[in-house]
Design a protein that fits this description.
Layout: H1 4-39, H2 48-81, H3 96-101, H4 109-117
The structure holds zinc ion.
Zinc ion binds at residues 87, 89-90, 92, 107-108, 110-111.
Region (Disordered): 35-54
Keywords: Metal-binding, Zinc, Zinc-finger
Protein name: TraR/DksA C4-type zinc finger protein
């Protein structure tokens, strides 16, 4: 069984990775955005569509990264508050195996399955 110090270490490392990835994505999106803006004058530019396709793809990844970052922050907040590993919905403990696989989990497996079925 993993103790809370280990979860905290895991979450902080995850947070660092996500922050770095988010900064990278932001930089790439900014340079693609400039390319796309430069192409706006010419509707027939064959490079226009691929750039905005790539931009949308990266913007999607960035949204996921930020959601993951928010979930990681929330998990660190629960660790600090002493409520980490307790289902936010039903108040029952989350199985250690689930937390090890998904340290940001805020729902126990029962509630998570109920929510995803909705
Ligand atoms: Zn629950």
């Amino acid at each position: 069984m993993t103790d809370s110090i280990e979860y905290e270490r895991m979450l902080r490392r995850r947070r660092d990775e996500l922050t770095a990835r988010d900064a990278e994505l932001l930089a790439t999106l900014a340079s693609l955005g400039e390319l796309r803006d430069a192409n706006n004058d010419d509707e027939h530019d064959p490079d226009g569509a691929p750039v905005s396709g790539e931009w949308s793809r990266l913007a999607g990844i960035r949204r996921e990264t930020q959601a993951e970052l928010a979930a990681t922050d929330a998990a660190l907040g629960r660790l600090a508050a002493g409520t980490y590993g307790i289902c936010v919905n039903c108040g029952r403990p989350i199985a250690p195996g689930r937390l090890e696989a998904r340290p940001t989990a805020e729902l126990c497996i029962v509630c998570a399955e109920r929510t995803s079925r909705r």
